[in-house]
Amino acid sequence: MSSNNNNKFCVVVLLVCCAFITATVGVVLKPANSSDDEVWLFAVSDYDNRLEYLDPVTHQIKGYNADIIDAVCDIANKNCELVWDLYSNCWYSRSNERAHGGVGLMAKWYTACTGWVQTYDRLLTFDFTLPFSQKGKVALYAQSGSSQDYSDLSGLKVGFLEMWFSDEACLSRFTTDSSFPIVGADLPSDSQKITYVTAKDLIAAVQNGDVDVAFSARLPQLDAALETISPADFPNICVAGGGSMMTSKANKEFVRWWDDAFSRLVGTSRYDTICQNIVDEHGDIPGYDASDICIGY
């Protein structure tokens, strides 16, 4: 066989092999119940409430957020997986540091982070889907029986929860709020701002006098253990929208299909069941019910 014929023969064999490999891989990877081969990864962690928690028996993430992901991905016919990770890898927020995007979402370790409230700072960095939970409320807390005036925080130490939207930037917005102005809400001294990882830690800090007051999203644990010193109609002026999927601004395709599928879910009996299960399936975990969480309730 001539050299030219040898070359032609090798090219033909190579093309046949490539076609075989491509066809075989396509069969192996394509999910039987999905519209495409892509696996959409959603970061979750443990809020320790009904939105998102680690089940101590099954060691699986459960809650309203996980139920929403299951339903939306089913409607959209997408192959979705939950990825356990630290909240700080989605959004980094610590005392006396400017909050910023977490390394996990910035580096695209996953498609999106689950259930993140749309704050004005986060909107500068990331894109969001339509909210699938309400934006919630905020409150100032003190020790039980305290007579502390919520409207003057001058010189006080304030405790916050790490990574939550109710951070020091959120509180500082009340310095210029016309309806509920708070003197000293900008906390000019770094020593006035202390963050805690869990609600349990924050409660203990207030009760032990490590901080004078706590500023946080309204949580049942805090409501039960501490004195709410802010008024009942105290506004949440810190967020532009409720809990959503937080994703890269370049990820328009994901936002499109998620919003379409979620819009088809809301208002259906399936969505009503998910909302009912907040208490029926997840009621042993602290948290609010459907009227405080679900859209349209």
Automatic annotation (TrEMBL):
Superkingdom field: Eukaryota
Q: Which UniProt keywords apply?
A: Signal
Keyword Protein transport set for record? no
Where does the record locate the signal sequence feature? 1-26
This chain belongs to the protein called: Solute-binding protein family 3/N-terminal domain-containing protein
Species this chain originates from: Strongylocentrotus purpuratus (Purple sea urchin)
